[in-house]
């Protein structure tokens, strides 16, 4: 569990710098240059991610079961993860109204993804992993949206066709992950 926690501290820590200390981040970008900052940020993110994957895998060998998820919860989890894939797509597909409405759909999508996985997993390592991502996504979305409002940030209006593209991209990405990649990468078939 220690490896998982260390990985989460590094990964979430790096991804929280902009939330907790944007002025420090800006000073580092000025000192290191944009490419230098991105390089260090990327290396720390990769190290944190590798530790998370490794630590979670080690913890799965001897899981501490706290509860058994109710029968059929996988369907709710699949729906929540589908919604999260659509929201994450909204962060990157230009010209959609979802981004304007939510502001930070990536963070909201991560929080919904984590909530779905918390519902479907009753082990301590799953609660630690998905609980951290749920809190990070929710707090990050709230803090970022609040800063946007204070700064008067306005997102582009977007179109119905932009929304349709987001939904299609999200659905396709979700289907590929749910029906093929999840079992291959994680070892569990989420809809079986």
TrEMBL record:
Per UniProt, subcellular location reads as: Membrane
Any matching Pfam family: NnrU
Q: What is its main location?
A: membrane
TM spans (from-to): 40-59, 71-95, 127-146, 166-186
Arranged from A to Z, the UniProt key words for this protein are: Membrane, Transmembrane, Transmembrane helix
Q: Which GO terms describe its cellular component?
A: membrane
Q: How does it sit in the membrane?
A: Multi-pass membrane protein
Domain NnrU span(s) in chain numbering: 3-190
Recorded protein name is NnrU family protein
Organism, scientific name: Trinickia dinghuensis
Task: Give the lineage.
Answer: Bacteria, Pseudomonadati, Pseudomonadota, Betaproteobacteria, Burkholderiales
């Amino acid at each position: 569990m220690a490896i998982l926690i260390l990985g989460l501290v590094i990964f979430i820590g790096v991804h929280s710098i902009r939330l907790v200390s944007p002025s420090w981040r800006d000073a580092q970008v000025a000192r290191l240059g944009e490419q230098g900052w991105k390089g260090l940020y990327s290396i720390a993110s990769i190290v944190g991610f590798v530790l998370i994957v490794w630590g979670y895998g080690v913890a799965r060998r001897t899981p501490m079961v706290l509860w058994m998820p109710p029968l059929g919860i996988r369907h709710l989890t699949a729906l929540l993860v589908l919604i999260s894939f659509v929201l994450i797509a909204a962060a990157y597909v230009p010209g959609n109204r979802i981004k304007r409405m939510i502001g930070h759909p990536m963070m909201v999508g991560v929080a919904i993804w984590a909530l779905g996985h918390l519902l479907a997993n009753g082990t301590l390592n799953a609660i630690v992993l998905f609980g951290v991502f749920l809190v990070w996504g929710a707090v990050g979305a709230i803090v970022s949206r609040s800063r946007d409002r204070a700064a008067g940030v306005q997102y582009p209006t977007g179109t119905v066709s932009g929304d349709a593209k987001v939904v299609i991209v999200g659905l396709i990405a979700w289907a590929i992950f749910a029906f093929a990649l999840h079992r291959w990468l994680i070892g569990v078939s989420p809809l079986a």
